[in-house]
């Protein structure tokens, strides 16, 4: 059976697939094509004796697009130069996909992560449409 | 002003001598979105009665929490040296038996340190954190 991506119905943002550059803790670097970024969140979390904030995203990666499985703490860099560190990796969907939870680098906010790629026409992650979370109305953006 | 506030503010003034570090007084050790890094957060701990004496003399202990935060980003080897140097600078500047402006009538001082590095990986955190607890002993007079 062949699986295919369909981001439709995925929360409020439909985005296209993107390329990530993965750098493993041992320095091995490779590019991962056709990854899907799922909705992210900005939240507080305990960090030692204090409370810090950070962004979390989930990326779905094809196993066949990865030279090797991303390791814990590996660095993922998107097309806008935003870096994420791998929190956990789940092998799922008939062992054809890695579901990777990753945290944005320190002091990077959700706005910094999202806005450049949403509003740059021609970028890989150009947004196609947005759904108003209250009314449910779908708006197709001009540059989609 | 309360003795506690004066103490916190004096600690902040002193830590302002640490080069390249932003200092803020907050109710608790929390990093806000957009804060620059590295950063020192000065926050109140407990105030407690240490000793009572005749003529309504009270010795209060004011605990001040100093939290040092930097962008860790799962880099576990390269920046150990610099981090420990920064931590020592903060500690050395803090470990003094007087405060600028003498906000409280100091008659004692104590310093307790947290682990040199606390790292919480995953769950939105990419920070290195450490802390000091400064306790100032102040002689005051209670109400009759």
CATH topology of chain B: STM4215-like
Provide the helix percentage of chain B.
10-25%
Residue windows where pLDDT falls under 50 for at least 5 positions of chain B: none
**The first-level CATH class name of chain B:** Alpha Beta
Helix content of chain A: under 10%
What is the number of helices of chain A? 1
SS-based class of chain B = alpha+beta
Q: Round the mean pLDDT of chain B to the nearest integer and report it.
A: 90
User: What is the element string of chain B, with H for helices and E for strands?
Assistant: HEEEHEEE
Shape of chain A: globular
Named at the architecture level, the CATH assignment of the domain at 17-108 in chain A is Beta Barrel
Give the overall shape of chain B.
Answer: elongated
Overall SS class of chain A: mainly beta
Q: Report the radius of gyration of chain A as a whole number of Å.
A: 16 Å
Number of strands of chain B: 6
Summarize the main sheet of chain A: 6 strands, antiparallel, barrel
Q: How are strands sequenced across the largest beta sheet of chain A?
A: 2-3-5-8-7-6
């Amino acid at each position: 059976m062949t699986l295919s991506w369909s981001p439709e119905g995925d929360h409020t943002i439909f985005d296209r697939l993107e390329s990530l550059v993965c750098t493993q803790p041992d320095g091995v670097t490779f590019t991962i094509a056709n990854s899907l970024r799922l909705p992210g969140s900005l939240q507080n979390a305990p960090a030692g004796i204090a409370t810090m904030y950070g962004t979390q995203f989930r990326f779905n990666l094809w196993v066949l697009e990865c030279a090797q499985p991303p390791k814990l703490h590996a660095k993922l860099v998107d097309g806008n130069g935003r870096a994420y560190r791998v929190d956990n990796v789940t092998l799922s969907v008939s062992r054809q996909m890695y579901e990777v939870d990753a945290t944005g680098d320190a002091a990077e906010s959700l706005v910094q992560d999202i806005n450049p790629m949403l509003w740059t026409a021609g970028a890989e992650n150009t947004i196609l449409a947005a759904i108003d979370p209250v009314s449910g109305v779908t708006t197709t953006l001009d540059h989609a | 002003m309360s003795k506690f506030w004066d103490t916190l503010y004096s600690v902040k003034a002193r830590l302002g001598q640490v080069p390249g570090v932003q200092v803020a007084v907050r109710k608790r050790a929390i990093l806000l979105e957009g804060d620059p890094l590295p950063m020192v957060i000065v926050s109140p701990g407990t105030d407690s009665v240490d000793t009572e004496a005749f003529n309504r003399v009270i010795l209060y202990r004011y605990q001040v929490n100093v939290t040092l935060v930097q962008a860790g980003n799962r880099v576990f080897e390269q920046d150990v040296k610099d981090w420990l140097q920064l931590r020592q600078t903060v500690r050395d500047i803090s470990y003094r038996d007087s405060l600028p402006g003498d906000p409280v009538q100091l008659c004692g001082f104590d310093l307790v340190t947290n682990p040199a590095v606390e790292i919480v990986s995953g769950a939105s955190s990419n920070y290195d954190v450490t802390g000091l607890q400064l306790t100032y002993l102040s002689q005051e007079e209670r109400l009759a």
